[in-house]
Amino acid sequence: MNEVLKSIQKMGIVPVVKLDRVEDAAPLAKALCEGGLPCAEVTFRTDAAEESIRIMTTEYPNMLVGAGTVLTTEQVDKAVNAGATFIVSPGLNPKVVKYCVEKGIPVTPGCANPSDVEQAIELGLDVVKFFPAEAAGGLNMIKSMAAPYVNMKFMPTGGINEKNLTSYLDFNKIIACGGSWMVNDALVKAGEFDKIKDLTREAVNKMLGFELRHVGINASDETEADSVATSFEKLFGFTKNVGNSSIFAGLGIEVMKAPYLGKNGHIAIQTNYIERAIFHLELQGFEFDMDTAKTDKNGKLVALYLKGEIGGFAVHLVQK
């Protein structure tokens, strides 16, 4: 997969933006970045699109900006010259796709049926847009098409919102979802960029689904660990479960048999998508200790500690 598309996969959500006024480009980009989604697909349906892309990429150079609703090779050139790093189209136009492929420009054309997907494969693509997602059969349609085309991945757009977002992202053939609920046209025209920032942050939090998993307590040795876990069992009926390095009391309390990370212990936060969570937290400046990474039998990351402590506790992420 192209490096730009890999970044989009880590982002998880691509805000689909329609701009009628060039002056809205900078404050909208600011709102998206501050809300945690430094990414936008600017639809090429308006006269303001080209200049808006130029402003966004100039004032926010770390932002991932693409052009959507691209229908011609001339529009590809205009978008790329303005700073767009990826191209999205509503349907599969072989001429446009070939042009992008030849120039090394990431392109995700819209595909809504197996014939479209086969054309995309023939053109050398491994990611396509699924559009209009909900109207074209939604997640069930994507799963049906993904079965025979095992190497193809999808980016659904159209009818995606905060209510169905994670149901799409839970399917491993979907790299990200496009959506406009956090940047709807009315909010942009009204200049409600603080509201857009808040909705963007809500969208990211909804996607990542952070929840407290358990609190870890550092005991000096196994005897003390057993005593602490026993106390919680007697007090609250939290059943003890003895492991190799710790003893759990129920699901929410882990007592370490020997001191581990954190002066007082650790706090485990579970997330829907650990790789995306790491990406988004790193965007905010947080760092991770890769020496603490734990993987499952398939080599997939399942747990990782942040560097440093909060209130004397180390903090780590856990894949749900």
Automatic annotation (TrEMBL):
<dbReference type="InterPro" id="IPR013785">
    <property type="entry name" value="Aldolase_TIM"/>
</dbReference>
<keyword id="KW-0456">Lyase</keyword>
<comment type="pathway">
    <text>Carbohydrate acid metabolism; 2-dehydro-3-deoxy-D-gluconate degradation; D-glyceraldehyde 3-phosphate and pyruvate from 2-dehydro-3-deoxy-D-gluconate: step 2/2.</text>
</comment>
<comment type="similarity">
    <text>Belongs to the KHG/KDPG aldolase family.</text>
</comment>
<dbReference type="InterPro" id="IPR031338">
    <property type="entry name" value="KDPG/KHG_AS_2"/>
</dbReference>
<keyword id="KW-0119">Carbohydrate metabolism</keyword>
<comment type="subunit">
    <text>Homotrimer.</text>
</comment>
<dbReference type="InterPro" id="IPR000887">
    <property type="entry name" value="Aldlse_KDPG_KHG"/>
</dbReference>
<dbReference type="InterPro" id="IPR031337">
    <property type="entry name" value="KDPG/KHG_AS_1"/>
</dbReference>
<protein>
    <recommendedName>
        <fullName>2-dehydro-3-deoxy-phosphogluconate aldolase</fullName>
        <ecNumber>4.1.2.14</ecNumber>
    </recommendedName>
</protein>
<keyword id="KW-0704">Schiff base</keyword>
<dbReference type="GO" id="GO:0008675">
    <property type="term" value="F:2-dehydro-3-deoxy-phosphogluconate aldolase activity"/>
</dbReference>
<dbReference type="Pfam" id="PF01081">
    <property type="entry name" value="Aldolase"/>
</dbReference>
